[in-house]
Amino acid sequence: MKKLILIAMAFVTLQAVAQDKQKEKRKAKVAQMKSMSAEDQATIATKKLTLALDLDEKQQSQVKEVMLEQAMYRKQKRDKKEQMNNAKGTNSTAKVQNVKEVGVKDINERLDHKIEAKKKMKSILNAEQYKKWEAMQGRRHMKAKEKNKMKSKH
Question: Quick check: pTM over 0.85?
């Protein structure tokens, strides 16, 4: 019985250590992406899509423009969010009201931006490439949902 308890404790300890390492890797990757310029992020995303979708030179340059737009948009939003988080001085009721108003506005703006980017990608890619890109986006979306579920459990 003692051996069983010791084995169970060892297993739990190893599991906790493994989860900490995964969190550290994720944080390091996020920090690396934040430190990159929008141009670097766009270049990397374009190269990944080139490998996945077999893009030609013209498509690569067009996709890079779209990726650069998206990277700049994300960077702008991230900076704005950091400024809002750093801002102090208003009362909590006003903050909650402001967050609700800004939240709906931001969601609509983000969705409009996604729709616009999707239209651009559809005009750049051929039918087969677009279908494969859509599938890639779906998998990416599902992975993000799974990560969010895991975060909410802890």
Answer: no
